[in-house]
Amino acid sequence: MEILEILKAVLFGIVEGITEWLPISSTGHMILLDEFVKLDVSPEFYSMFQVVIQLGAILAVVVLFWNDFFPFGKKDNQQPLAQTGVLSYVKWDKFMLWFKILVSCVPAAVVGLLFDEQLEAMFYNYQTVSIALIVFGIAFIVIENRNASQHSRINSLADITFNTALLIGIFQLIAAIFPGTSRSGATIVGALLLGVSRTVAAEFTFFLAIPVMFGASLLKLVKFGFLFTTAELIILVIGMIVAFMVSVVVIKFLMGYIKKHDFKVFGWYRIVLGILVLAYFLMR
């Protein structure tokens, strides 16, 4: 296996780790990267790779936020299911959080299972990605300007109701249908519109990514099959490892950034990128 293919896998991992969590569309960036840096793999493997590489990014969330969502243990158990015995190790508030996350997953899961291949064939193109980048970039700016004079109604994960969780899931569905929307971008925009604070919107988006991305990756792996060549396995593993390491840094940056800043800078970035993607492909 050539060292060049390993370097390409590293580059894809870096781009995935950065763009998966910032609301700027990992799909849009992957499409652009694929134009300039072609992995020497089959189309079937690449279709699977660009989804499964996200597992590395998801692992970063699991590592960084383990204590925030793991539903078992006595330490910091604010809502034990019982005061003594085995049930005293059950963190009911964490279970409630997971129930809400699963409710948010339902819309995208149903559509993804039924129409994954059809949607990819219809909308996985530079026109859709460019428009989605621009439209949601504008949405970020408009919503942040509107929210500048308003106070958030939901300032903790516990304040998110099941109705709110379902509505956030419907916003996530937009990203599942239209690549370039950005899964994190769609859920954060939806959460902000529903009165969720920036910090809570980002955290809920991170947690929501865990079952969504695991499910999407499993679906792609099953469709591709588990018979990898040595070169394919090395490319996939390296991409995931790099995506994990970069994601740890990016998630920490984003959580610190949004405590003092809004999301408008990402909105402007999306608009500029969308215009560049559209111009590049039109002039190619």
UniProtKB/TrEMBL annotation:
<feature type="transmembrane region" description="Helical">
    <location>
        <begin position="266"/>
        <end position="283"/>
    </location>
</feature>
<keyword id="KW-0046">Antibiotic resistance</keyword>
<comment type="similarity">
    <text>Belongs to the UppP family.</text>
</comment>
<keyword id="KW-0133">Cell shape</keyword>
<feature type="transmembrane region" description="Helical">
    <location>
        <begin position="121"/>
        <end position="143"/>
    </location>
</feature>
<dbReference type="GO" id="GO:0009252">
    <property type="term" value="P:peptidoglycan biosynthetic process"/>
</dbReference>
<dbReference type="GO" id="GO:0050380">
    <property type="term" value="F:undecaprenyl-diphosphatase activity"/>
</dbReference>
<keyword id="KW-0472">Membrane</keyword>
<feature type="transmembrane region" description="Helical">
    <location>
        <begin position="45"/>
        <end position="66"/>
    </location>
</feature>
<keyword id="KW-0573">Peptidoglycan synthesis</keyword>
<dbReference type="GO" id="GO:0046677">
    <property type="term" value="P:response to antibiotic"/>
</dbReference>
<dbReference type="Pfam" id="PF02673">
    <property type="entry name" value="BacA"/>
</dbReference>
<keyword id="KW-0961">Cell wall biogenesis/degradation</keyword>
<keyword id="KW-0812">Transmembrane</keyword>
<feature type="transmembrane region" description="Helical">
    <location>
        <begin position="97"/>
        <end position="115"/>
    </location>
</feature>
<dbReference type="GO" id="GO:0008360">
    <property type="term" value="P:regulation of cell shape"/>
</dbReference>
<keyword id="KW-1133">Transmembrane helix</keyword>
<dbReference type="GO" id="GO:0005886">
    <property type="term" value="C:plasma membrane"/>
</dbReference>
<dbReference type="InterPro" id="IPR003824">
    <property type="entry name" value="UppP"/>
</dbReference>
<feature type="transmembrane region" description="Helical">
    <location>
        <begin position="164"/>
        <end position="181"/>
    </location>
</feature>
<dbReference type="GO" id="GO:0071555">
    <property type="term" value="P:cell wall organization"/>
</dbReference>
<keyword id="KW-0378">Hydrolase</keyword>
<feature type="transmembrane region" description="Helical">
    <location>
        <begin position="201"/>
        <end position="221"/>
    </location>
</feature>
<protein>
    <recommendedName>
        <fullName>Undecaprenyl-diphosphatase</fullName>
        <ecNumber>3.6.1.27</ecNumber>
    </recommendedName>
</protein>
<keyword id="KW-1003">Cell membrane</keyword>
<feature type="transmembrane region" description="Helical">
    <location>
        <begin position="233"/>
        <end position="254"/>
    </location>
</feature>
<comment type="function">
    <text>Catalyzes the dephosphorylation of undecaprenyl diphosphate (UPP). Confers resistance to bacitracin.</text>
</comment>
